[in-house]
Structures are given as structure tokens and as C-alpha cells.
Amino acid sequence: MIRLSVSHAAASIYVLLTLALACQSLPVSARILPKIDARAKRVTYPRPANIPTDAELEAAEARIGEIRVSRGQLFDPGGVDDNSSLFRLANRLHILTREATVKDQLLFRTGERYDGRLLEESARILRDTRYLRDAHLRPIGYHDGVVDIEVITQDVWTFNPGLSFGRKGGKNTSGFELEELNFLGLGTQLGLGFKSEVDRDSTYIFYRDRQLGRSWWDLAVNYSDNSDGRETGFALQRPFYALDTRWAAGVSLSDDLRVDSRYDLGEVIDEYELQRQLASVFWGRSAGLVDGWVTRFKFGVTYDDNTFGAAPGAAAPRLQPADRKLVYPWVGAEWIQDDYQTTRNRDLIERTEDFALGWRARASLGFASNALGSDRDAAIITAGLAKGLELSPRQTMLFEAATSTRVENGALANGLLTTDARYYFKQTPRRLLYLGLAATAGSRLDLDQQVLLGGDTGLRGYPLRYQAGKGRWLFTAEQRIFTNWYPFQLFNVGGAVFYDMGQTWGRDPLGSKSQGLLKDIGFGLRFGNSRSALGNVLHFDVALPLDGDSSINNVQFIVETKRSF
User: What pLDDT is stored for residue 8 in this prediction?
Assistant: First the structure.
């Protein structure tokens, strides 16, 4: 979805100017010897030449001294940005992320032993927040066995008061939101709004505090009053927030009443009402990072009750899913290899990107039984595996697979396997070839589980939810271009030429016969949302379908924001 009037910093600022708000920002700590890349219009932060290497500091058992937090404003007038009155006013209107909010997410404290790995991981945690554009950590001083650390962050615009509009797969979406993703600089998210999407209209409110009471506890609450029902959610958890985290715990509750639809050739062919009540509690334990590896164990109990019926005001569904109630304890394990890569201009434009290259594996096993309140005896199995490969300094591949199923009466039920492979070839610093191959396969799927292929699942030249089957595959080739164009110093501009090809297999219970191999070609512009937290990359695409039935349009226009290129 593209937020036409507020998702990007310029429009947000104009709205706020009209409202004549006057929020005074907090002072910014002094930076130490930044270097400006004039061509790319960005600041780099080299390590001072007189500081020993991480290995030398660790061997000397250096202790952490002063931790300085240098908080960068939205704009740096006279530095990397023009010294304009608009930029200066934007800085005044924006409430800067508080120093305590940044420090609470660091994995080290003054007086502790220096460990260079913790600086890198702390930077990844900070970059994962929506309210910071970037984060860098570096030692800046060393004396008498004490090393001083500088934490450099860059804020983004986080207030969203306005309209939104998007289009993909031949369908429009719209809405009105009042959202703040960094309330008072505390990292707290809250908002309310209205949105009209393909499936339903919703009036919603949400609240989330990722660091409740300056701790690692994450609290999230949401409520939505929908045109076809309502949704309530609550979650409180302390996650495994770092590789060396020793314990985790959490509880989550949700109650969702909605109307779901079955699709064929982009149109609704059946619908039914679903009420789902879901509750889960878990506790986890880990020995932390040992010899480059992390092993974690989780134990929990899940309550999952699904009740189906006719949609209000509609005819009885042609295929109504059977009610399903599963109550089960479960045990899970996770293995992570400490191997990460930092790069730029891969999935985002002129932003630091973190990729996990090491092995990541997970598995869980649960047992539902009538004795615990389930409506059947079943084993619930989930698993996942991921790995990255750096084939050369310019070539990287990422693989991922996940599966979930139940075992009932000795047979698989609702089995689902998804796989994804991505290849990146950086031809030059500003040109990249991307190849992607993804597949989904189902076995004895529940009737409320549909495998779909269309404009909303990567086949950009076709209507959303166009083809249904028991499985699908999709191949994408994309030539990406990252330009030097930086209009209004708000957006980094890129472009793409793409080719998509995919197909479903197996017959959906109510779907038409497969259209066979479907292909499209297209081109588009990309605008990197460098100043706002409300979406990372804005897409304007034109896609031309090369196959399909005569009912589809000869061209698809796509306008949306996504988390990647």
C-alpha cells in the first residue's frame, strides 16, 4: 500500500506545518569525525586509527568505559543535507528518540568486558526497529585498559496522520490512519484508523511497547471492528532477543470473527464465517552462544479452536470446513549459527541491510488429545531450515524451507511445505541481478487452507488470487538499478525490469482447471523511503500478462509499499 499523503516524510511535514505543531526535539550529542560520501549523500563512521582491533582489545581484557549516544535528527542541515528552513522545521517538529531508549537495547554496559561481537549485534537490534533509519557502533577511545564506545543512530519520521491508497492484482485499498511509531521518543507504537481492503473494512486501534518498563518484555494489544466481524489480540513476551539470551517466556491471546472466501480466477466463489480463538503460553531456555552456535529449547501449551458456519446474509457455503479444536502441550528446539553479513543496495536503497548466512533450524512437536479437550487425537509438527551462502564477494544465495502438518490416525493432515531460494549478483555498486524461486506444496489440506497464485503472491501481471491448486511455484528474474537521484533529499530512486513465471498443480476442490504456465513481464520505479518509518520501498509497477484467460486486463498497474525492492 502507498500512503499518498503521509507515508513519506515530505507530505507528513506539510501536514504538520498546516497544523502548526510545535514539538521541541532533544539535543543531539556531538559526533566524532564523520566522513561524508558526497556522491551517495550519506555519512560513514570509520574506526579511529589509534584504536586497537577487536581481537587486541579482547586479548587485553579491556573494559567498557563511557557509552556516548549520538542521535541523528531527520535532517542534517549544512552537513549531508541542505540547510533549508523546511528541514530545520521538520527537526523541530520531530521528537528525537531518547538516549535511554537507545541504551536499553545495547547488549553491554559500562564496566563489562569488551566484546566486539556485541557491538555488531547491538547495531542489528537497533536497525531492526522501525523508528531508526540506521545504527552504527564503534570504539572511539582507549586508555588505561578502558575503551569508550560511540552509538550513532539516525531517526526517521514516525507520525502518520492521513490517507492511504494502494493497488495490486486489479484491486484497490484505502484508509485513514493516525499512527505514531515512536511515541515521545520511547519506541512505543500506538495508533487508530480505518482501512478498506480486499477482504473487509476495518476500524482498528493498536498499542505496542517492545521494551515495557525499559525491559526486554514486549507488550502488544490490538482491537479491530470489521465489516464482517471483529478481532482482539493481546501478547506479552520476553523473546530470545539476542544470541546469548538465556531464557524467554510469553503468553498470547486472540479472538477473531471474520468471513473468509475461496477464490478462483480472481473472483470469490465461496465464503464462510470463521470464529477462531487462540491462546498460547511458552517458556524457553538456552545455554547462550557457545563456539559460534546457539541452542534453544521451548516448552508450551496451545489452545486453538476454529468454528465454521454460513456467512451472515449469504447462502450456505458450497464447501464448509469442519470445526477443529486442538489443545496440546508442545516442545520445540532451535539452532542458530552466528554468521551475519551487512551490505547495501540489495533489497533496500541506500540503507544498511543485515542478512543471516549461518544455519538456522527449528522444530516443534505437540500432542493433542481428547483427554485435554481436543476434538481428536493428533500430533502437531512444525519445522524450518535456512542457510545463506556467499559464493563470491559479489554473489550471495539464501535458502529457506518450512513445513507444518498434523498426524491423525496414522496419516498426514493439512500438510504444507514452503521453500524459497534467492540469488543476488551485484554487477556494479548500483546494478544488481536478482533471481528468486519459491514453491508451496500441500497435502490433504483443510478446506480453510487454499494455495493461491496471482498478483498478491508475486505474479504481478495477473489478478490477485488468480489460480488455486494443491501447490504452486513461482520464478522471478529482476534487473535492479540503484540511481544517484535523491529528489528533495527525501527519496532514493531505483528502477527494475522483471519477468515472472509460475504455475499451480493439483485441482482445488472448487477451482477451475489450471491455466498452465503463466508468465508476465514488466518494469517499474522504486522509491526508497529514507526518511520515514511507514514503509521501506514504494513500488510503481506496470506488468503485462503473457498468458491467462480472456477476462484479465492486458496490463496491471501496481502501487504499493513493501519491505524490500
Answer: 36
Using CA atoms, how far residue 260 sits from 272, 338, 352, in Å, is 6, 41, 39
| 506 Ramachandran zone, left/alpha/beta (phi>0; psi -120 to 50) | left
* pLDDT tens digits, one per residue of 222-279: 999 999 999 999 999 999 999 999 999 999 999 999 999 999 998 999 999 999 999 9
> Phi/psi of residue 234, each to 5°?
-145, 135
What pLDDT score was predicted for residue 331? 98
129 CB-near residues (< 8 Å, 6+ apart) = 105, 187, 210
Residue pointed to by grid coordinates 521518543: 185
- How confident is the model at residue 28, as a pLDDT? 33
Q: Are residues 42 and 199 in contact, defined by beta-carbon separation less than 8 angstroms?
A: no
Longest dimension (CA), the chain: 79
Residue pair 6/161 in contact (Cβ under 8 Å)? The answer is yes
Residue 538: partners with Cβ closer than 8 Å, 6 or more residues away: 2, 7, 8, 491, 526, 527, 529, 560, 561
pLDDT for the residue numbered 106: 97
> In whole angstroms, what is the distance from residue 165 CA to residue 161 CA?
14
pLDDT at 233: 98
Class of domain 239-562: mainly beta
Measured from the Cβ of residue 353, the count of other Cβ atoms closer than 10 Å reads: 14
Residue linked to cell 511535514: 13
Distance CA 263, CA 182 (A): 38
Q: Rounded to whole angstroms, how far apart are CA atoms 378 and 411?
A: 10
Instruction: Give the SS3 label for residue 351.
Output: coil
Per CATH, the architecture of 9-155 is what?
A: Roll (3.10)
Q: In 336-391, which residue ranges form alpha helices assigned H by DSSP?
A: none
As a whole number of angstroms, the distance between CA 8 and CA 492 comes to 12
CB atoms within 10 A of CB 246: 12
**How many residues does this entry show for the chain?**
565
Residue 456: left if φ>0, alpha if ψ -120 to 50, beta else—which one? alpha
For the chain, the distance separating the N- and C-terminal CA atoms, rounded to the nearest angstrom, is: 14
> What is the SS3 assignment for 57?
helix
Which residues, 6+ apart, have CB-to-CB distance to 437 below 8 Å? 420, 421, 473, 474, 475, 476
The domain ranges of the chain are 9-155, 239-562
The string of pLDDT tens digits covering residues 115-156 is 999 999 999 999 999 899 899 999 999 999 999 999 999 999
The closest alpha carbon to 507, from 416, 420, 445, belongs to: 445
HEC string of 75-133 equals CCECCCECCCHHHHHHHHHCCCCCHHHHHCCCCCCCCCECCHHHHHHHHHHHHCCCCEE
pLDDT score recorded for residue 15: 35
Q: Enter the C-alpha cell of residue 99.
A: 538516549
Instruction: Extract the residue ranges of the chain whose pLDDT is less than 70.
Output: 1-43, 169, 535
| Structural contact between residues 216 and 241, judged by C-beta atoms closer than 8 angstroms | yes
